[in-house]
Amino acid sequence: MKFPIAVVSLLAVIQSASAFAPAAFTARQSSVRTNTASLSQAAEGSSHNVPGPPYAGPQFKPILDSIKSPADMKSLDMREIKQLANELRWEVLENVSKTGGHLSASLGVNELTVALHYVFDAPEDSIIWDVSHQCYGHKVLTGRRDRFPTLRQAGGLSGFCKRSESEYDCFGAGHSSTSISAAQGMSVAKSLLNKRKNNCIAVIGDGAITGGMAYEAMNNAGYLKNRMIVVLNDNGQVSLPTGTQSAGGVIPASQLSAYTSNLLVSKPFQDFRDFAKSFNRLLPENVQGVNKRIDEYARGIVSGGTLFEELGFYYVGPLDGHDLDNLIPILEKLRDSPSSKPVLLHIKTTKGYGYPPAEQASDRMHGVGKFDLGTGVQFKTKATAPSLTSIFANALIDQATEDRAIVGITAAMPGGTGMDIFGRRFPKRTFDVGIAEQHAVTFAAGMATEGLKPFCCIYSTFMQRGYDQVIHDVAIQNLPVRMMLDRAGLVGNDGPTHHGVYDLAYMGTIPNLTIMAPSDEVELKNMVATCAAFDDGPTVLRYPRGVGYGVEKLRDFFGYEFESDEIPKGQVVPIGKGRIIRRPGGMKTEANGANTRGRERKDRVAILSFGTRLEESLIAANAVEESDPNLGVTVADARFMKPLDVDLVRELADDHSVLITVEEGSIGGFGSHVLHFLTLDGAMDEGNLKFRPMVIPDTYFEAGTQYEQYEAAGLNARHIKGTVLRLTNRIKVPVLQEQD
């Protein structure tokens, strides 16, 4: 058998190496296990170096106190750099323990953050953080330490990178898998504009790199061969939390994660190549060129090639991402390289590194509320009722217990969507596809073609990423995919990248969809049952972040009558049918009864709520009637946006002089659909009906509590009351005069 000349030369090199120094070469091969063990030890974190509990950081932070911007780091020596990293870690810990936030991601890249700002010259050099929930240390080092106590609060620092907040935040984020595309665009722009420096660094995790957009960008980067560095932060946590029981087991929901894990434990060629390079430098230049080709060929033989190299990247790694002694010089070499070839630097880190409670938690303390720094125990107020997410999950379990065709799908968010609860009960019917919303939707469509009943559970804000699939793969084919949109409406401290305010507008334009929203947990359970029973097309069920009301309030305020202290199992509700909750005079008032309120049509007002603003609508109705003995307010729960309950809308329009819609969505949603119907139906033609849609205004709402955000949006009870009183001429609206 004849071997290619490159292979013959390679074999000669190996034989020569063994002949000259067999003991050394054997030692290098055996050191693979040692190096791997070292990386594994690093992956286990630094718990053994942190005394406690109770855990505490340094009393003083002299190095960090001297850093006002990254430029102040340039004169530090390695000992001081390491001390800075320790001080930075505890600065993040101390502040997040008081504010809450995304903790462990920032702890995991703490050393990388210090290294990047020490080696590169931001903001001239562009550092892009994928998702950017790991940017807390970056914010502290870039002049925002004094504002750090305001993290994720109204008027404070964003929990993500934000271009308007700092010149060091060169690209904003909140969703995943965008960094490589952004870095590539910046690199091309710097080249075309002949900028003096062109260092663009994208930091992306092993979860975010599973997103299809990351592959698209890597494929294009290898083709364009533009200069950039992609740092793959491999921490083994693809989904939140990792370890959810599913059809794929409890391992991370990513074959790429398994692939990079294999790279971490199969490093023989990494050591051999170090030797081969030193050997190559002893040869004449023409032989060096031949052996360069040998090196490239051998990489394919010995390691099987790497995916990243096949995509056109120069692969470096894996490296210990917490080892500053190695990380800094390698980054310096990459910075100073004249090559325009894109580089992928693969580092292994531990999420939550340096804080034992985070390292040991199942979710690595990914997102936390306020907590006790000494123990890691979070301060959680006792909930008066279960979360809507858990209510949904348990309602789905109820349905799946009786219907084996029901399956659950999540895109790397089992904890956030309740699929972790469902997975514990039905692991073989639970599918975590990783950060791949487009795939999740079409995967569900494929299941539906074969008779399964897929519940595709995705945050409202993340479903934006699968929009074309909803149209092309689900709606056009009228496949009965059940799309569960958690976190609908304003979500609180995560801010504008995570608000679920657009789904009614973007889903409402698509034919064949049935769109519904529950007003409370009883309706949520009913709508889960309705979706399970509906096979005539795709359904969308949206519900907000938050907790239910509890049995007592459901009875006393909403008028439910339960036979026991438990909410009953969900019942199927008629498709496209809403309900009247309150008539003039109060909840128990019968239609055409003895009520004296609103005897004249001009004094009758209807509030048509869609979703959980129903409570605020009822509070407003009570307040309006308390303020005026003549006004009568009807409150209805629409339940469905598509198909719209046109009979209910006609009844409200005919019997009332004012009709107000209230929703937790943007312009173009439920209110627009109601108005569209009213105008086409002629209800507005005679000019005797005043209509007002109350929606989330056309702006972005920054971090704050959900109450603060709805207050700013004008969708709380006092705003609804004010709208009623203005439209019934009980209060005057001041006229703004133009100033000379």
UniProtKB/TrEMBL annotation:
Pfam families named in the record: DXP_synthase_N, Transket_pyr, Transketolase_C
Q: Which GO terms describe its biological process?
A: glyceraldehyde-3-phosphate metabolic process; terpenoid biosynthetic process; thiamine biosynthetic process
Where does the UniProt annotation place the signal sequence? Answer: 1-19
Q: Where is the Transketolase-like pyrimidine-binding domain?
A: 386-551
Task: State which pathway it belongs to.
Answer: Metabolic intermediate biosynthesis; 1-deoxy-D-xylulose 5-phosphate biosynthesis; 1-deoxy-D-xylulose 5-phosphate from D-glyceraldehyde 3-phosphate and pyruvate: step 1/1
Q: Which cofactor does it need?
A: thiamine diphosphate; Mg(2+)
**What are the protein's GO molecular function terms?**
1-deoxy-D-xylulose-5-phosphate synthase activity; metal ion binding
EC number in record: 2.2.1.7
Which InterPro entries does this entry report, sorted A to Z? Dxylulose-5-P_synthase, THDP-binding, Transketo_C/PFOR_II, Transketolase-like_Pyr-bd, Transketolase_BS, Transketolase_C, Transketolase_CS
Task: Recite the UniProt keywords alphabetically.
Answer: Isoprene biosynthesis, Magnesium, Metal-binding, Signal, Thiamine biosynthesis, Thiamine pyrophosphate, Transferase
Assembly and oligomerization: Homodimer.
Per the record, the similarity remark reads: Belongs to the transketolase family. DXPS subfamily.
| Full protein name | 1-deoxy-D-xylulose-5-phosphate synthase
Supply the source organism for this entry. Attheya septentrionalis
Lineage of origin: Eukaryota, Sar, Stramenopiles, Ochrophyta, Bacillariophyta
